[in-house]
Each structure stands twice: as C-alpha cells, then as structure tokens.
Amino acid sequence: MKAVIPAAGIGKRLQPLTLTRPKVLIPVAGKPILGHILDKLIQSGIDEITLIVGYKGDMVIEYVRNNYPIQVNFVDQKERKGLGHAVEMGLVDHDEPVLIILGDTILDLDFNQFVKSNKNIIGVMEVEDPRRFGIAELEGGRVKHLIEKPEHSVSNLAIAGIYLLQHENLLKKAIRNIIDNNITTKGEYQLTDALQVLLDWNEEMIVEKIHACYDCGTRETLLNTNRHLLNHLTPEQLSFKNTIIVPPVYIHSDASVADSVIGPYVSIAQGAVVERSILEDTIIDETAHVRNAVLKNSLIGQAAEVYGTDHSIDVGDASRQNLG
Fold this sequence. Notes:
This protein is an alpha/beta fold and 324 residues long. The chain folds into two domains: 2-225, Alpha-Beta Complex (Spore Coat Polysaccharide Biosynthesis Protein SpsA, Chain A); 234-322, Hexapeptide repeat proteins (UDP N-Acetylglucosamine Acyltransferase, domain 1). 22% of the residues lie in helices and 32% in strands. The chain is built from seven helices and 25 strands. The protein has helices at 33-43, 57-67, 83-89, 111-116, 168-180, 191-200, 219-231; strands at residues 2-7, 27-28, 31-32, 48-53, 71-76, 98-101, 106-108, 121-126, 134-139, 142-148, 157-165, 206-209, 212-214, 244-245, 249-251, 256-258, 261-262, 266-268, 273-275, 278-284, 289-291, 294-300, 305-307, 314-315, 320-322. The strands form six sheets. The chain has a seven-stranded mixed β-sheet with strand order 5-4-1-6-11-8-12, with helices on both faces. Strands 14, 15, 17, 18, 20, 22 and 24 form a seven-stranded parallel β-sheet that branches. A five-stranded parallel β-sheet has the order 16-19-21-23-25, with no helix packed on it. β4 (48-53), α2 and β5 form a beta-alpha-beta unit. The protein is elongated.
C-alpha cells in the first residue's frame, strides 16, 4: 500500500528551531518527528511512500535517504495552498488504496489493523473545542458530514490527521473538483472539503477513534509528545559520572553526561554534552553543549551552547546562550 505524507510546512510556532530546518525534523524522544511516523508505516507493511516537501525540503530528502531503504518519492510543493492541494500533488490515477498521514502528527494507533481495512476511514478523536479542527458528524455509525473549523459545534469528533481511502484516483478527482471550482476554507484548499465531495458522491466513510493524537506543532505539544513517547520506551540501565538519572529519559549512547541530574522527561541526542546541570522536561539536540544550567520545559537546538541557569528557554541551532 502507498502512503502520502504532507511535510512541506514551515513550523513558525516552533521558531527559533525551525529557522534552520523543517518542523518534521525536530527531534522528540530520540528521533525526528518524521522518523517516528516512517517507522510505524514501515512496520505496518507500507511499501511505498510519497513525501510532499517544501520548506528546506532538501534536508528532509537527505534525512530519509540516509536512514530508510524503502521506496520514497519526493514531490516539491513550491506554493503552499492548503492540505488538499498538498495531498493532490502526491496522488496518481490508480484505483488502489492510499493512506494519508500528516507529517507532524504522531498517533497512538494500531497501524497494522488500520491499513488492512477495506473501508474508507477517517481517524478522529474527541475534543473540547471543535472550532479549532476539521469535524466529522456521524449518522448511524457512518460519516454524514465533514466541516473544517466550524463556527458552531455539530460534533466533538475532530479529524486526527490520518485517512484511509480505498480509491486513490477518486480522491484525486475530488481534490481537483474543489481546486477547479475554487472551493476554499479560510483561503486554502482543504482535504476536509474534498472528502465532503466524496460523501456527496455517495462514497461511504466510517471513523476510527484514536487514543491520542500529538500534532507537534507547538513547543507545548512537542514537549507533551516527548513525555508520552518516553513513557513508552523500554527502560535502559544508564550510568554516567556523578549523575542521577530520573526516568523516563532518552540519552544517546554517543552523548556525554557528567555531574548532573537528568529527568524526568529528558531527551539528549547524539554528540550532545551535558555537564554540571539539572534538566527536566527538556529536549537537547545533536552536538549541543549544556553546562552549569538548570533547565525545565526547554528546547535546545543542534550545536547550540547554553551556559548558566534558567528555567525555560528555547535556543536555535548553532546559537549561543550565556545565562550568567
């Protein structure tokens, strides 16, 4: 089965980290967001992937080619006109099933069962404020209506960033329909609107409830995802000089840690150096140096240098922060 992953976004809400790389390559629990998604897809039997790239797409291509032997096609979305437009660029006129999954979304889902279905499925989860999401309205267990970011609540089932469609060519036709007729929501061609076209064409859809959906689009959701994934990692026996480890944590085998207290919920990537520091609820990226620091709820970029004490800070790649 083929999967299409839109991964062209800039990730403005994760600046300064995304000033130098795309959002999908931001690390969480030991690997980039995209890496978690690709691992799950490959484990579920997906044998072809089309990645829609855009902002700093060359970095995405390099990461995938260096780490994944599976067949991956790359499509450059030069103009970002909405999720529907992005997905359409990755579709062809084949009458085969296709899986769509957002490139910044990590899902708590049994992918193996999901992709084996012979039905059109939309992943959903219950939310408190439906106005922020695409929403599915049901009738008799089937999807009756889909609406993007409704002004008034018609359902609390938010679309959770994964879709299984049994006919790739029909989905492509539906997206072309909204583009040709200039059907937009808030100025963009939305996948939700194209799926509504399929419903209007009498295509049946059902929903699959997702236990948890982590969109990784803000620093808060990224750190929350880091917590969740670390809670599900197999604990390792870690020992560093004069260091206390408070699990769960992830520390790469090539990282250097000494004279520190690490955890809970800390990820330290390859080549990072941490000395005389106390870290909690923090992500330290590759080759970063943290010394004499107290950090909590923090994001430290690649090759960044942080000295001194603070409580919450974001430092971009190759930046230096002396906190005194």
